[in-house]
Design goal:
13% strand; binds glutamine; binds zinc ion
């Protein structure tokens, strides 16, 4: 049995690539040095994958920012505004990724969106009517050659043409089908050039197929591939899918003259049924995604062998693989000294997953796989009770919940009036989303505390001093509702993971979220509960510094769950409700200590929304939305509950978002167009809204006029009494130098608007 992986993490075990790129951004290093770091990382990763004995090694899964952006550039989809800057290739690329403001001009970045149901984000290619698609780059070839020179035969990975066209954004009159011909010509040229290099395989990723697909979708997909595969130039083609099953296109997909098809058996609820029910063509390789590429638990060998045995009679050669790219898990357990060995035995990161694939491979070649020592050890692990994971008190509390615990009263309108008279905020109140710049000092403070060179008291004193400065700064800027700044938090989930019982956290478990940003998701190890108040002390301190309301700042249960690695053997609904009860305790404590506005972030509400619409409510929203209400249903009418969401295309779940029953919601609206506002109006959205008026993922400073223009556009669609003014997300990734003028311009814009009204 051969083994294959779809992609490998690229940021480096010590986030080497992140730091190298950020240095380049700060002009502290040259492009050549950056390339050198990248080359060394690629070499190291190929060596690791090869040394583990993986048979199919990917290349071109490396990227300086995002592989979808790489594909856009490869196919010459560089919008005119970036070309006009006249920058070199690399800086044009980074301008598309992050926007650009400097001597050459001032442009926004491409839109960035959530990559399916992960916390990775991709850049959305923009196709203009005059975009001339053609093969315009060398990256896949260079990286293939580079691997070859090191002695590795690799399988280049690219987004497939269907997913590329489906995820692109069309700015003019032309639509996906209008670009099919030149795009296929470019892919054809790509195949030809790989054939010249005697490459064996090429991998086209087509995850879009795991969405609900209409008959037209399937026809479009089939048409693209029959044309593309009409001349494979002697190459063998793998069409790789992941993040679900391909029930609507299975027949079409298996009928294509491809050489291998990759299917996801971990998340694809119907994958097994498709293969056993409809059969799988014996002349193609079935790349079976059995080792979960999205979670950090060791594989369950018994379950994997069950599936392998079930599909064997229906397929030809089965290649053992991961369910998706290993991009979505951290690197290695080798740098995790703090995990207890008895617990660590349950974990597998990317490197350990390679080892699992190799172990499964050798196990499968044994005459009686289930009698091997490796198999028995794995079964023993799963049969044993996990140490330190069960809590009967949490169970008892969950069992006692009634529908009243999930409903806030009085109703929205009545509360709004009470809050208006108590809070006395101006029209178009200004606020921020929570975090302020995490400067080098702030990070150094945390690092020193973690290393033990600073005591808890010293650590805390530093954060309080930062908070004080931050409050003073916000007063000076003239914001109406303040925040404490989140200096004590690394990110919005890890902080809570560290304070709640039932979580484990890693030292180096970094996963790329977008570009150079990585997150370190905590792990849900067992039943979750609150040990003690987590944010009250800081909130009370911050509020003591100002007469203006300071928002309490919490992360909601759905986001905590979605940005953690969940258990695979406890329903996520159950874990989410446990977290909701813990956060509820915190909300009530904040209120009892005089905090009048509490923001409960649900940045990742949509993250685990099933990719198929038909599953949205029954499998997710029907419990996720009530879990949010469980958090805040106990507060007094005068306490204002805010929530925040980002990158959440929520046009299609607006009613559910209203049903969260928050008083105010802020969300990202500046990077994409404002169509969301039409949808809000059409749905008679009740919750007050703060559509982000500028993009905080870019270092550029928006002018007062620009923000005012944005606000005027927003006001054509939003009730002026319901409009809040805020940036589109937290400011932690920005520096003070751009944060202060941006917020000043924002408050100026709000003032100008008030004087007009
Ligand atoms: N309150 C958080 C912050 O400002 C929200 C972050 C997020 O939405 N991703 O950082
Ligand atoms: Zn956000």
């Amino acid at each position: 049995m051969r083994t294959s992986i779809i992609g490998y993490p690229r940021i480096g075990a010590q986030r080497d690539l992140k730091f190298a790129i950020e240095k380049y951004f700060k002009k502290e290093t040259t492009g050549e040095k950056l390339e050198e770091t990248a080359r060394a990382l690629r070499a190291r990763h190929w060596r690791q994958v090869a040394a583990a004995g993986i048979d199919f090694i990917p290349s071109n899964d490396f990227s300086f920012y995002d592989t979808f952006l790489d594909a856009a550039v490869l196919f010459n989809c560089v919008p005119a505004r970036y070309r006009a800057l006249g920058l070199d290739e690399r800086d044009t690329y980074f301008a598309m990724a992050r926007g650009y403001q400097g001597a050459a001009g001032d442009v926004h970045a491409l839109a960035m969106k959530k990559w399916f149901n992960t916390n990775y984000h991709y850049l959305v290619p923009e196709l203009e009517d005059d975009t001339e698609i053609r093969l315009a780059g060398r990256k896949p070839f260079d990286q293939y050659d580079e691997a070859k020179a090191l002695g590795f035969e690799t399988r280049p990975v690219l987004p497939g043409p269907y997913t590329f066209l489906k995820l692109a954004r069309y700015t003019g009159r032309k639509q996906a089908a209008d670009f099919a011909e030149p795009l296929l010509a470019a892919y054809g040229e790509l195949l030809a050039q790989f054939a010249e290099r005697n490459a064996g395989w090429i991998q086209f990723d087509e995850p879009y197929l795991v969405h609900d697909q209409s008959a037209e979708d399937v026809a479009f997909f089939t048409d693209l591939y029959s044309k593309l595969l009409a001349d494979k130039h002697g190459l063998r083609v793998l069409v790789q899918t992941y993040f679900g099953d391909v029930r609507d296109s299975y027949a079409a997909l298996t009928a294509l003259p491809v050489d291998a098809i990759g299917l996801d058996f971990a998340e694809g609820r119907k994958t097994l049924e498709l293969v056993t029910g409809q059969g799988f063509p014996k002349d193609k390789l079935l790349v079976a995604g059995l080792v979960n590429g999205k979670n950090i638990w060791r594989a369950n060998y018994a379950k994997i062998l069950d599936v392998l045995e079930a599909i064997a009679p229906h397929a030809g050669e089965v290649v053992l693989g991961t369910s998706c790219s290993l991009l979505h898990v951290p690197y290695t357990l080798a740098n995790e000294p703090k995990l207890a060995p008895a617990e660590k035995a349950y974990f597998a990161f990317a490197e350990e997953k390679l080892a699992e694939l190799a172990e499964l491979k050798s196990l499968c070649s044994a005459e009686r796989p289930r009698e091997t020592a490796a198999y028995k050890a794995n079964v023993a692990l799963w049969e044993a009770n996990r140490p330190n994971s069960a809590d009967a008190a949490v169970d008892a509390r969950l069992a006692k919940l009634t529908p009243a615990d999930f409903t806030r009263s009085p109703a929205f309108g009545e509360r709004a009036a009470i809050q208006a008279s108590e809070l006395k905020l101006p029209k178009f109140p200004t606020t921020t989303i929570g975090s302020f710049p995490q400067t080098a000092d702030v990070r150094a403070n945390r690092a020193a505390f973690r290393k033990g060179t600073k005591s808890a008291a010293e650590y805390d004193a530093f954060n309080k001093a930062e908070t004080k400065r931050c409050i003073e700064q916000q007063e000076k800027i003239g914001l109406d509702v303040l925040v404490h700044g989140e200096f004590e938090r690394n990110d919005m989930v890890e902080f809570f993971g560290e304070h709640l019982a039932g979580f484990r956290f890693t030292s180096n478990g970094w996963v790329q979220s977008y570009g150079t940003r990585c997150v370190k998701p905590p792990v849900i190890w067992g039943d979750v509960s609150r040990r003690a108040p987590m944010t009250v002390d800081m909130a009370v301190y911050a509020q003591s510094l100002s007469k203006k309301p300071v928002k309490g700042m919490l992360t909601g249960p759905v986001t905590i769950l979605n940005w953690s690695f969940p258990r695979e053997d406890i329903p996520i609904r159950r874990s989410t409700e446990q977290i909701a009860l813990a956060i509820r305790d915190e909300v009530l404590d904040l209120e009892a200590h005089g905090i009048r506005i509490i923001q409960i972030d649900e940045a990742a509400l949509r993250e685990k929304l099933p990719l198929r619409k038909s599953d949205w409510h029954c499998a997710y929203l029907d419990w996720a939305i009530p879990a949010f209400r469980l958090v805040h249903s106990g507060v007094k009418p005068g306490t204002q509950i805010h929530t925040h969401m980002c990158y959440s295309e929520f046009n299609d779940i607006i009613a559910d978002i209203d049903a969260m029953d928050a008083d105010v919601i802020s969300f990202e609206a500046s990077r994409a167009d404002l169509t969301i506002l039409d949808a809000l109006a059409a749905a008679h959205f009740r919750t007050a809204v703060g559509p982000g008026v500028y993009d905080i993922h870019s270092p550029r400073i928006p002018s007062t006029d620009e923000i005012l223009g944005q606000l005027r556009k927003i006001l054509q669609k939003v009730d002026p009494d319901k409009l809040w003014v805020n940036p589109d997300c937290g400011l932690k990734t920005r520096g003070w130098a751009e944060t202060i003028p941006s917020l000043e311009n924002m408050t100026q814009a709000a003032k100008a608007l008030r004087s007009e009204a």
